[in-house]
Amino acid sequence: MKRSKICIGFLTLLGLAVPFLLTSSDVSAKRYNILAVPITSEESVDSSGGGVQNDPFQIGWTDFSGVNGPNFVPNITTKDTARFFNSRNDESLSKCMYNGNRGNGVTFGGGILTWQFGSYLNFYQGNSTNLNYFNIAKCNQTTEFGAVGHGNIPHPEFKEDSFYGLTPVTTAFYKSLLPYYYDYSHIYLSDDAIDVEGVHYKASLKMSDVTNGVIVTKPSSIVIPLGNARTNIVGEMTEGRQIEFDGVFNFPGASPSDPESFSWSPVFLQKGHFQLKIYGMTEENDSSYIQKVDCQLKTRSVQDSALGINEMQVAYTCPFTFDTDFLDDSVYFSLDIGMGTDTPQSDERDNWWIFKTNKDWVYTTAFVITDNDPTPADEPWNETPTGNNIKEAPGSAIPLAEQGGAENADWSSSLINLFGFNFINPFAPIFNLFSNQSACAQIPTIAGMIHSNESQVCPWFNSTTRNIVTPVLGLASVMLVFGFTVRWLGARSGNLFEDSMETEHYSFSRFRRKQ
Amino acid sequence: MIQTVFNVLKIAVIVAICAIFMVAINALISLIVSIIFGNVIGEILALVSMFLPFNALAVFGAIGTATIAILAFLIAKKIFDLTSWGISAI
After folding, report:
1. Which residue does chain A place closest to B25, by CA atoms?
2. From A158, A349, A358, A425, which residue has the greatest number of CB atoms within 10 Å?
3. Contacts of residue B46 in chain A, CB cutoff 8 Å?
């Protein structure tokens, strides 16, 4: 083969790749709007002297310190539940920044609450005797909000050990987070807060210093604190140690035997990748150091529990390697997962799983935390919904959850098992060409050099383009290498398996003929 | 017929030796790569790969695997030839 033919071959390969490059219009992963910010200690504000002194999120604040400013001392301590409601009659979101205050006047960091008209923020107080409370200092718009609840005031609507969320989804979500909270919100009412029919009350709320997020309407990412997860890891959190972090979310649903029980709202759960954030302290940095890990959603299932309640279960896995030495007892985890209740747009539905209910659509607010760009992966349902009460909501244009049995597992893994060796599979790089090529890269050293908090870089091109171009280029390159090798071996001898002495004899004969 | 059987056995032995050497060479090269590229150089290459329309690590890994397979085959063939009695029957 002449060099010109080789060049033509390379140009042909490039020509085949150009259409894939030109069609990659969506060069960036999906980005969700940040409609709220998390309530974490990192966003705490200076609450000394009462009132918020700054506006770190630059969204414009209205000083409500005079409306809901003064704290009041509650006398309710255990198993209290309350709701904040919003009286605005539009679709806007209310954001209010609150300060923390303790019973003895000592202040602590607050945060931001966000909620929408007609919806509620529910908080459940655990079995605690702390008399912590806070006051709403600033909101981004004029709004009247209040809280209703009970402590030692009996009310039929509020039951112990229950949640009353914006929707059952949120309620179930909160309940699923219970094992991971190390502190709970405390709701206290003033002595005159009794009426539940839209009368405004003064209330106090204490959010734990590191908590999850706030509530918005668009499908966005949420943060699930996994503070207790580190207890599953034994040993030192040293650099280079590999961990596989698995977790399961359980979302209880409606009970078909109880028509009064709440039902599921349509829940849109993000496909594919999530981010696990590892917070901890290092020797160089005594504040929280964050390492981000790319997680993969393994399965999603709907099943009937022993109590006859449909539950949605989501399982994920996060294999990662510690990129630094964390100080012992300083590490905790949180998981960013996309979830929403607004109907996704038609061009976004491929990135979301949709879980339907047996009742009408219920729109509510959901969580949003981060501006991370999770890259959705193409993974269908692992199981079909069970139970006879799961059917399409009337008037819905979205079809039921995907039917079909076995998960469309990565077929390269099956071939790996076929050609695999016991400990080392030398053919793994070949099969890795066909796996998902949308994984992000960790660059902790470079991030440290440029003093950046982002130690992870995700692909510029979308996963579809990379999943097509990578095996094409990889196989073409392998074939070229084999082709040139066979050509080289064939030039040495007429037969690959021929003895070298015969080769030399043949060459000598040719040389002699030329002379 | 005998020659065909002999050739098949010969090929099978070569493949077995080749597989052993492929594993060993792969492990050795992985160790060398991890030492050389297991720091900033590797991160720079990973960063560059993120801006390419393909996963460079996977592509070069496949090329490396093919190269290792060829190298292992050549080594296996050479060892077989050195340990063979006389000229091959092919």
Report:
1. A426
2. A158
3. 441-443, 457
Q: Which of A20, A430, A443 sits opposite B46 (nearest CB)?
A: A443
Residues 6+ apart with CB under 8 A from A280: A237, A288, A289, A291, A326, A327, A330, A331, A332
Q: Which residue has the higher pLDDT, A435 or A226?
A: A435
Please, are residues A202 and A193 in contact by the beta-carbon 8 Å criterion?
Answer: yes
> How do residues A339-388 score in pLDDT, each as one tens digit?
444 444 555 544 444 444 333 222 222 222 222 333 333 333 233 333 33
Residues of B within 8 A of A433 (CB-CB) are 58-59, 62
Could A498 and B88 be called an inter-chain contact, meaning their C-beta atoms sit closer than 8 Å?
A: yes
Question: How far away is chain B from the Cα of A469, in angstroms, using its nearest Cα?
Answer: 5
Neighbours of A59 (CB within 10 A): 13
Residues in B touching A17 (Cβ below 8 Å): 53
Handedness of CA A227, A230, A231, A232 (dihedral sign): positive
- Are the CB atoms for A294 and A456 separated by under 8 Å? yes
Buried b (16+ CB within 10 A) or exposed e, A451-490: eeeebbbbbbbbbebbbbbbbbbbbbbbebbeeebeeeee
- B-chain CB neighbours of A487 within 8 Å are none
Block residue for tokens 């080789």 = A6
Cα separation, A121 vs A165, in Å, equals 7
Find the residue in B nearest to A470 (Cα): B54
Are A429 and B69 a contacting pair at CB < 8 A? no
Beta-strand relationship, A214-216 and A289-304: unpaired
Catalogue the long-range contacts made by B85-90 (C-beta closer than 8 Å, 24 or more residues apart). B87/A499, B87/A501, B87/A502, B88/A497, B88/A498, B88/A499, B88/B10, B89/B3, B89/B6, B89/B7, B90/A495, B90/A497, B90/A498, B90/B3, B90/B7
A465 contacts B53? CB cut-off 8 A:
yes
What is the overall mean pLDDT for chain A? 47
Asked if A24 reaches chain B (Cβ–Cβ under 8 Å), the answer is: yes
Using one digit for the tens of pLDDT, what is the confidence trace for A41-83?
222 222 222 222 333 333 333 333 333 332 222 222 222 333 3
Closest CB to A466 among B54, B69, B81: B54
DSSP state of A59: S
What is residue A50's predicted lDDT score, i.e. its pLDDT?
A: 28
Tell me the one-letter amino acid at A452: S
Of A442, A473, A498, the CB nearest to B54: A473
Minimal Cα distance from B10: which residue of A? A497
Nearest to A29, CA basis, from A453, A446, A440, A472: A440
Please tell me the distance from the alpha carbon of residue A243 to that of residue A225, in angstroms, as a whole number.
Answer: 18
How far, in Å, CA of B60 to CA of B29, rounded?
A: 13
Q: How far is B58 from chain A (nearest CA, A)?
A: 6
Distances (CA, A) of A349 to A240, A346, A354, A368, B59: 38, 6, 8, 18, 31
Model's pTM, two decimal places?
Answer: 0.31
